[in-house]
Amino acid sequence: MINIILPVDFGEKTDQLVDGAVKFAKEVKGKICLIHVAPTDIGFAIGDMGYQYFPEVEENEIREELVLLNKINQRILAQDVECEHILKQGIAKDIILEYSDLKNASYIVMGSHGRSGIYDVFVGSLTKGLTKDSKVPVLVLPIH
Q1: Are 17 and 111 in contact (CB under 8 A)?
Q2: Alpha carbon distance, N-terminus to C-terminus of the chain
Q3: pLDDT in tens, 107-134
Q4: Rounded distance between C-alpha atoms, residue 29 and residue 115, angstroms
Q5: CA distance 71 to 112
Q6: Which residues pair with 85 in a beta bridge?
Q7: Which uninterrupted H or E stretch holds 103?
Q8: For all residues of the chain together, what is the average pLDDT?
Q9: Are β-strands 50-53 and 44-47 bridged in parallel, bridged antiparallel, or unpaired?
């Protein structure tokens, strides 16, 4: 079975990315391994007392993200593409690469907004980092 890792961030272009990944999965008769990586700082806030941690905020956010992830999973399954999903917390690039190894992935499918230059210097590019460090091909779909 061809495993395709599909990281999602629930941004405005997620639907377009999912559509492209589903099309690709159908072409190669692959299974989509959907992953969302939540940041580790959910629930932290800065206030008068300095940094504070609110576990209930983190729990609520994770619960909401799991609901969104499950909806995407169901949408993919409804298109006759095998799919599973997972949510993890950590550094996105590292978690995605570990998941790719765990699933013995054949591909990672990412989206690119076409930004470059100064944007990468200050914000960084997950797609660029994965392309550089992945052991498997990274299919980059243009999302505009």
Answers
A1: yes
A2: 31
A3: 999 987 655 554 444 334 788 889 899 9
A4: 31
A5: 23
A6: 34
A7: none
A8: 87
A9: antiparallel
CA distances from 132 to 14, 75, 138 (A): 22, 30, 9
Amino acid at 123: V
Distance CA 22, CA 90 (A): 26
141 residue type, one letter: L
* Contact predicate 38/68, CB 8 Å: no
CA 128 to chain centre: 14
Length of the chain in terms of residues written: 144
Radius of gyration (C-alpha) of the chain in whole angstroms: 16
Residue 35, token pair as written in the block: 């992953």
Structure tokens at 36: 């969302």
For position 44, what pLDDT does the model report? 59
* CA dist., res. 95 & res. 8, Å (int): 13
pTM for this predicted structure: 0.85
Structure tokens at 102: 């765990």
Tokens 């969302």 correspond to 36
